[in-house]
Write a structure and sequence with these properties.
Strand content: 15-25%
Distance between the termini: 93 Å
Helix content: 25-40%
Structural class: alpha/beta
């Protein structure tokens, strides 16, 4: 069934553009028997929009909508346009799972081979397991890749499509985006349903898109009104089948979040989804309601952190040191903490560099210089891999002679460290030298529950938080081993 009426996205923002090749791409898609729906045409026009310089108006294009609606179809149409209209040299289609990438390859293969006009321009189709690609005459390729735990290396191209964007992690983007700098007209496309709690990258794109203030992001999101408006019980609604007045039971809201309702998705099928799917799954996939992080944003206000900045802050002996490493081992951070002459706690980032190979030597050099009261390490974190090497270089849990003390913190101590650090900042007892990486880590950090307390969450944070973790642990180490408060005698009278 074909519908001519556009279902307007709940959130839509586009850069200004001079002209667009969207209609030409639509004509090509029709020639291949895959004409775009109105919502797909909307996205195609923005994707192929050209600014006054003759370049793509959008560097990023994001489509967030429920499953089986328009994402994958639109990406197929984009790929056709880039291959046969703008004739890009390298297009990369990536997915979180290898199986999804393979299915997309098969769909594109069938789409191109179904048209003699398109198929005769194909030089070779590579069907190797993990090497799927469609190669055209004129040195143009569309390749299909699964994203790996190691990051996004190998995903760089003139145009990059990131399917299943809910699974993107900072390591993927950190590996991908710098490689696009040398491309003449790069673009990145995100396709996804509403995000999971751990969808850090996609949530950041969502926030920029909804704000509508990013000059080079085209953002389209279809969703129902939030539970606070859609459900009788507001945010307290469980969305269960027996929940009275739940927005998940209202077809008019289904239509807002699912543009294909009444076209390729029947209302009967949607009602079946509602009965069969777990409530949270239906709410996310077919209402467009995002799962939010279990913990939350950092409990340190921007004003409180700014008030603690002091570029001239200086620490007195003794000092404590700590080290932290990002999960993908792309960055390492060393921090130190101590007390100032006025009694306030001082913490700062000492070193923050790519990789891990430099860390142990640097810690040894700093220990020789400062004679720290302790080096703090979380053995359950990525930095735990350094424990053996540090032991061999003289850092011991029970030091003797000229060895340095090594403190290994457990989950209970880590929660205490996070809470105490936050208390110091909130109550004005902390000072830092206003360092960019540390400021950024505090700004983008999120938390996770830990027993009855909380701790910093690497997964939910928007940026590299290794500087924040290292400073938090250094402050904890100094509190445990560097403070010798005078004890007043106690007399029984």
């Amino acid at each position: 069934m074909t519908a001519s009426v556009l279902v307007e996205p709940a959130y839509r923002s586009e850069p200004e553009w001079h002209s667009t090749l969207g209609p030409e791409v639509a004509d090509l898609s029709r020639l291949a028997g895959f004409a775009p729906d109105p919502e797909q045409q909307l996205i195609l026009d923005a994707t192929f929009a050209i600014d006054k310089r003759g370049k793509s108006a959008s560097f990023e294009v994001a489509a967030v909508v429920g499953r089986q609606n328009l994402k994958t179809g639109t990406m197929k149409q984009m790929a056709l346009g880039w291959l046969f209209v703008t004739e890009e040299r390298l297009i990369v289609w990536s997915a979180h799972e290898f199986r999804t990438a393979q299915e997309s390859f098969r769909d594109m293969e069938q789409l191109i081979e179904s048209s003699s006009y398109l198929s005769r321009r194909v030089k070779h189709i590579h069907r190797g397991n993990g090497d799927e690609a469609i190669e055209l005459h004129g040195d143009r390729r569309l390749i299909f890749k699964a994203r790996t735990k190691g990051g996004g290396r190998g995903l760089s191209g003139d145009k990059v499509m990131l399917d299943e964007a809910f699974a993107l992690q900072p390591m993927h983007m950190g590996a991908l985006l710098p490689t696009l700098g040398a491309r003449p007209d790069p673009q990145v496309v995100y396709g996804s349903s509403a995000g999971l709690a751990e969808s850090v990258v996609l949530r950041g794109i969502r926030d920029r898109g909804r704000a509508g203030q990013d000059a080079r992001l085209a953002y389209f999101e279809w969703c129902a009104p939030p539970p606070a408006e859609a459900c009788r019980n507001g945010v307290k609604c469980t969305h269960a089948l027996d929940a009275v007045g739940c927005g998940c039971d209202r077809p008019e809201f289904w239509a807002m979040a699912n543009p294909q309702l009444g076209r390729r998705i029947s209302p009967v099928t949607m009602a079946s989804f509602r009965r069969a799917l777990p409530p949270a799954e239906f709410a996310r996939e077919h209402m467009g309601w995002w799962d939010e992080p279990v913990g939350g944003l950092v409990p340190i206000s921007a004003d409180a952190w700014k008030a603690c900045a002091d570029e001239g802050s200086a620490v007195q002996d003794p000092v404590a040191m700590a080290v932290d490493i990002t999960p993908d081992r792309s960055m390492s951070a060393i921090a130190m903490a101590g007390r100032r002459a006025d009694g306030l706690v001082h913490g700062e980032l000492v070193d923050h560099r790519p990789g891990t190979g430099w860390v142990v030597d640097r810690l040894v050099d700093l220990a020789k210089k400062w004679r720290p009261c302790v080096l703090v390490l979380d053995p359950s974190s990525p930095a735990g891999s350094l424990e053996k090497a540090l032991n061999e270089r003289g850092f011991k849990v029970e030091p003797v002679g000229g060895e340095w003390r090594l403190q290994l913190v457990g989950s209970r101590e880590y929660a205490q460290a996070c809470g105490a650090f936050t208390d110091d900042v909130t109550n004005g007892r902390f000072r830092h030298p206003d360092q960019g990486p540390l400021n950024k880590a505090v700004e983008g950090a999120a938390t996770r529950p830990l027993a009855e307390a909380w701790a910093w969450s690497r997964r939910n944070s928007q940026d590299d938080i290794s500087p924040l973790v290292a400073v938090t642990l250094a402050r904890h180490g100094h509190a445990a081993f560097g403070v010798a408060e005078p004890v007043e005698p106690f007399f029984i009278r």
